[in-house]
Specification:
The complex is a heterodimer of chains A (170) and B (199).
Chain A: H1 3-11, H2 17-26, H3 30-46, H4 57-66, H5 84-107, H6 120-129, H7 133-145
Chain B: H1 3-15, H2 19-37, H3 44-60, H4 71-89, H5 98-101, H6 120-139, H7 142-152, H8 158-165, H9 169-191
Helix pairs in contact in B: 1-2, 2-3, 2-4, 3-4, 6-9, 7-9, 8-9
Chain lengths: 170, 199
């Protein structure tokens, strides 16, 4: 493919991804840049785009651009491509983590008389049942001062206010 | 690779300090931007000045362009703001119509409604170019004319054109190139971009 044919294919987005970088570099030459501009002009005329700018616009713009400090933007952070293996390893690590936590939790369960682990709920009930009547009294007293109501803590700031209409109507 | 991706490649190069890459974008979009600005500004010389200012502003703002929108969509906004500021600075009323603001930057195609802002010289130049292109098109062999029409006017991909024309993609690429080159050969003397001249 000759260079001009490459430019033609490039502007149509029909060059391979691996060829694009080299193609853009080759467009730095004046001759190839002129071909790029001419091919785009042809397309615009065919689509009925009327020329609004004079033929000298490009040259004048280039002169103005040359006076501008060169822009150097920090490269945008591009997310790394992750392959299937990466996702498989992540999933395996998650499963392994859950398994370890589950196993440790299982080991900490109290063992029943029949050798099986008891349930957490059962042991809590048993603990409360063993607390006795004095603990029940404690809990009852404690409940009276505990913040069970949604308005708890606000009541002390509430003042009863009454309004009385002025006799003279003011 | 889509048109947007091509622009993104050029933008990224310009962001790394390659001014020529930005000039390629300018040569691609200058007519489109000029046409947009002529909706705000009547004088042809002023349209050129504002176009240049808009492109320079876009160049300065390149570090902030992250590719969230297409390059032309971004340039379109800069162009409109530059034109409005230009008119306000000269005490002229900037259009408040939402017609332009709401126009789809990508599909904005109402050339017939545009005012004629060309100077007599630019008008002549424009007509000459249009004549050369149209005459060259008419003289092209049928298969070249069909290929470039499907590409430039219908916007089809090479793959789609190959299906329609029942030929390999390589043939489509060659036909489109030969059509462009045949027209360009007749256009270059008008543009002053023969091989020994700067673009």
């Amino acid at each position: 493919m000759v260079e001009r044919e490459r430019i033609s294919a490039f502007m149509d987005g029909e060059l391979g991804d691996d060829e694009v970088d080299g193609q853009v570099r080759r467009l730095k030459s004046d001759e190839h840049a002129a071909d790029w501009a001419t091919y785009h002009l042809i397309g615009d005329v065919l689509r009925g785009e009327r020329t609004q700018l004079s033929a000298g616009f490009t040259g004048r713009f280039s002169a103005a651009l040359a006076q501008e400090p060169t822009v150097l933007a920090p490269p945008a952070a591009v997310p790394r491509k992750r392959n299937l293996q990466w996702y498989a390893m992540s999933a395996a690590a998650s499963v392994a983590g859950i398994a370890v936590v589950g196993w440790l939790a299982f080991l900490q369960q109290p063992v029943g008389s029949d050798g099986t682990a008891g349930t957490g709920g059962g042991s809590s009930v048993a603990a409360v049942a063993q607390a006795g009547p004095e603990m029940g009294e404690y809990l009852r007293v404690h409940q009276e001062v505990s913040p069970t109501a949604a308005m708890h803590g606000v009541a002390s700031y509430i003042r009863t206010v009454t309004t009385q209409e002025s006799i003279d109507g003011r | 690779m889509s048109d947007r991706e091509i622009d993104q490649q050029l933008v990224e190069r310009a962001q790394r300090g390659d001014k020529r890459a930005f000039e390629l974008l300018v040569s691609k979009y200058q007519r489109k931007l000029g046409r947009l600005l002529s909706r705000f500004i009547r004088d042809a010389g002023e349209v050129e000045d504002v176009s240049q200012e808009a492109f320079i502003k876009a160049y300065r703002a390149l570090p902030s362009f992250r590719g969230d929108s297409a390059f032309y969509t971004w340039l379109y906004r800069i162009g409109i703001n530059t034109a409005k500021n230009y008119l306000v600075a000269r005490g002229r009323r900037a259009p408040t119509s939402t017609a332009v603001d709401n126009a789809d930057a990508e599909g904005y195609e109402d050339a017939d409604l545009l005012r004629d802002v060309n100077t007599p010289e630019a008008e002549l130049e424009s007509k000459q170019m249009a004549n050369v292109v149209n005459e060259s098109m008419a003289a092209l062999p049928e298969e070249l004319r069909t290929a470039i029409t499907l590409r430039e006017i219908e916007g089809l991909s090479y793959d789609e054109i190959a299906t329609i024309m029942n030929c390999p993609i390589g043939t489509v690429r060659s036909r489109i190139f030969r059509a462009r080159e045949t027209i360009a050969e007749r256009l270059r003397p008008l543009l002053g971009t023969s091989k020994d001249k700067r673009w």
